[in-house]
Amino acid sequence: MAEYKVQANAKINLGLRITGRREDGYHTLSTIFQEIDLSDELVFIESEEFGFSCSDPTLPTDDTNLCVIAYKRMKSLVPDSKDFHIHLNKKIPTGAGLGGGSSDAATVLKFLNKKWKINLNIEKLKKIGLELGCDIPFFFMGKTQGATGLGEELFPLELPHSFYLLLVCPNIHISTVWAYKQFNLTNKKENFKFRSLLDKRIFWALFENQFESVVFPSYPKIGKIKSDLEKENSEFVSLSGSGSTVFGIFKTLRLAEKAREKFEKYPTFISHPILHNRN
Questions:
Q1: End-to-end CA distance of the chain
Q2: Which residue, 134, 155, 176, sits at the end of a domain?
Q3: Active site includes 11?
């Protein structure tokens, strides 16, 4: 049986503002999605029937899993196509604001679109992805993208330089739905002026993640990680998405590795951003 291995990269949010709420209850936002080189691996194995398994026994493998939903959505377009068993080797922490589940689902959609020769264009793939999750469209674009609306209105940005990331991932699962429900819309803000944030150099002081105002009071351990990381020669420290991951940005690998020593009781990762101006 043929076997195909595909990487699904994580993301961080370089700043996140809540800008409003639509009549259907969904919130609008303004953020910069940044693809990073921390990744899950999906193994597609040709099979007589579809199956899904995962290296993490705590993750559901039934019809509630986004990968399964994505698979069945594509299968409905070409029901006679040969099936695959998908095995997910999980490395991106779940419920951590790193988009692992969304990236995995986007990878399933992209792989099957090509392998089954469905040949949907990027806009149609993004539309299907949005039906499954608001940040899935980003993973069809990747690298650095400004995002507004639900997160599906994307436009490429270029960071003026690269950096190193230290991700500190406490074993806390935070529901994005919960985080939005806690947010007080009297604190909503205008969209980021992306050009002023990134033109020629990065003005980190202008970034903010508004989810910190609801996550830190409920999970003080996460707030302490941020304050501790800010003491470690970091350029910028923030919650990613609704958390629970806190990331620090460092100029050099040596500084990131030194800071990592202070967070030995948590899972940590050192990663790079994947940029438009890098191969």
A1: 33
A2: 155
A3: yes
